[in-house]
Design brief:
single chain; mainly alpha; Arc Repressor Mutant, subunit A; 3-stranded antiparallel beta sheet; 3 strands; HTH_HxlR
Length: 132
Amino acid sequence: MAEAVGSRTATGSTTAGGCAGDPCGSVDAGLTRVFALLGKRWSGLVVAVLNQRSAYFADLRRAIPGISERMLSDRLSELAEAGLVLREVDEGPPLRVSYRLTEAGRALGPALEELRCWAAAHLPARAPDGPC
């Protein structure tokens, strides 16, 4: 017979590993913050593109098919506010804005590579006629 992971105390609560009446522990606060930022649609892709090179707004838009100008602008602002992206204005004419990762943003590179490898091993490939 298999042994239960947690055991009940005399009061009915559970010891480590149990789940009765309470979620099985809480979610890590660090992971909560990471996914609140990078879990938003497009944010991870913006960081992934900028991890390869700095880019102008139009270059980012071309590199991420399906993202609207408004959404790209919003995500870049959020990532800049979080300290992951730097916005640099190149004096014109023409006036151009480029974006690059900060040191904190570049530190996400190994994690993004791990996620890419995990996806290649565990997620089915999209059909050729599907979105990128």
